[in-house]
Each structure stands twice: as structure tokens, then as C-alpha cells.
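Quick illustration for those who missed Monday's session on complexes.
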Amino acid sequence: MNDTRGALLGPAEIRDLAGRLGVRPTKTLGQNFVHDGGTVRKIVRAADVRAGERVVEIGPGLGSLTLGLLEAGASVVAVEIDPVLARQLPTTVAAHVPDLGDRLEVVGADALDVTSLPGDAPTALVANLPYNVAVPVLLTFLERFDSLERVLVMVQAEVADRLAAPPGSRTYGVPSVKAAWYASARRAGTVGRAVFWPVPNVDSALVALDRREPPTTTATREQVFAVVDAAFAQRRKMLRSALAGIAGSSAASAAALEAAGVDPQARGETLDVVAFARIAEHLPTVTGGRTSPRAAGGRPGTVDA
Ligand code: SAM
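Prediction with S-adenosylmethionine bound:
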């Protein structure tokens, strides 16, 4: 499992580096560092990174994946919230791949606050995402950076299932529909717990997303997302009741659903993003989507899951 070839970080080095920096991985920041070169190469392969491609990485941590991306020929802009890790990254890269140091730019910031990136526009997002903010970060980047054509992220296995779930499946929900607005998503592999330090108490999986055009609709994304949020806030309810609040009454929501060609007795979990867009078009009282803070400790202007 350990990779001692080439430029990548192994378990001893991860611990040594963390020790020297005084880094104690925190759950709050989802700090589980990959110490297995095979896993890094698996992610890079699944991401189909092309030589010369501009990649944005969220949460580079100690640099495990960053080195793999650079090794594959990418130029990387890495966004890291932890100032100690952000400061160290160029030094780690210079030590491991001295010739590739000029292909790295580091942004020390909370990814949810990043509205612009230095250098060329990235065409791919590749990351081992911090699990507690994985979905908001993913959706926010798809919204803000329309240059992104492809995404390959490692997330909690349960979240991977939700992102890739089709309508009607048990795990289909808000993240599935919102991701489907931007892209088609599929599971792209699983990752064992032993490749991380510290070992997380959840399983992980890879999700690949390919950008596509959003549904053709006169409704805005915010309007469609407001309908999605309302439909799943009361998942077990029929849409007529679930959308009564945003429609003004259940009679108004039933009328809008019928006009959209959707059975008012259906549940949100059976509808695809195109149907949600049609409903939004017929709900004139939907007034813009949520730009609400995250559930806990969030801030305005981000796309919630
Ligand atoms: N990419 C590294 C790896 O694979 O070993 C580290 C991945 S670790 C799961 C998540 C990383 O995201 C940590 O380095 C953490 O400090 C960083 N992070 C957490 N929240 C963040 C945020 N809101 N914006 C940017 N980085 C964040």
C-alpha cells in the first residue's frame, strides 16, 4: 500500500511533516490526510488529468494529492483554509518536485469565500474534500467557476451515493438534484479507510461529474433550487403539500404542478431536475433561491446542499 516511488508522500513523511509543523488534524476542518501513493494515483487517473491542464484543488492539506496532480503534468491552484498548511505547501512541492514548483499557486482561504482564482481558469476540480463542507463547496465551485468542465472528488461514501443517485432511489435528494443542474454525476470507485491519517470513521468514495448545460427553462437557478429545497424539506409529503408554503396555498401549488405536467400527489424524490425546473416556471411566488448561511456557522452567498 505504501508508495516509496517518485514524488508522493508516504505514511512516515506525512507524520513527520505534521509533527514538524505542529499540525494536529482536526475534525472541524475534516483533516484526514492520504498517505498512500497508490490512492493518489488512482484519484489522478480517475480525474483524467491532462498534461498542461489547469486544476483547482480544494484542501491540499500536506500536499499528497497536489504532488500527484503536478506529477501528471497539471498546473494547480490549491485553496487551503489552514494557514500553516497553506504556507508549507510550496516548500513541500519544491522539496519533492523542484522542477514543478512554478506550476503551483496557493490561495490561503475558506473555499466557500473564494470568488476568483489567480492564473488561468481551471477546467477541472480535483480534491479530497473536507467532508463536513463537501457538498456546499462542490456546488459553490460549479456555480462560480463555469470554466470547470470536469470534477473528481473524494467524499464520504454516503455523500457520493447521494450525489450520483437517480430519481426514485433511496438516496436521491437535494444534493442529487442540485448537482444534476450542473453536471452528470457517477460513482468512480471506493477508497478504504486505511489510506488516511488519522483513520476516519466513515467510508470514502470517488465521484466524477461532467459539466453539461442546465435544463432549458425560464426559471432561474435560484428559483429551481428553492422548489427543490421545499420539496425535500418534507420528503414524505406529496408535492401539493410540500410546496404549499412557497406557492401560497396548497390549491396554488396543485395548480402549478398540474400546469407543469406533474402529478400533485407525487413526491419530490421521483422527479428529475427538468421537472423541478418546470414546476418553478409555474410558481410565480417563488422569489429567488436560498443564499442562506450554512446550517451551522455558515455564511451568506454559498450554495447549500
Ligand atoms: N488533500 C489532502 C489529502 O488528500 O491528504 C487533504 C484532504 S483533507 C480530507 C481536507 C483538507 O481541506 C484539509 O487540509 C483542511 O484543512 C482543508 N479544508 C477544510 N475546510 C476547508 C475550507 N472550507 N476551504 C478550504 N480548505 C478546507
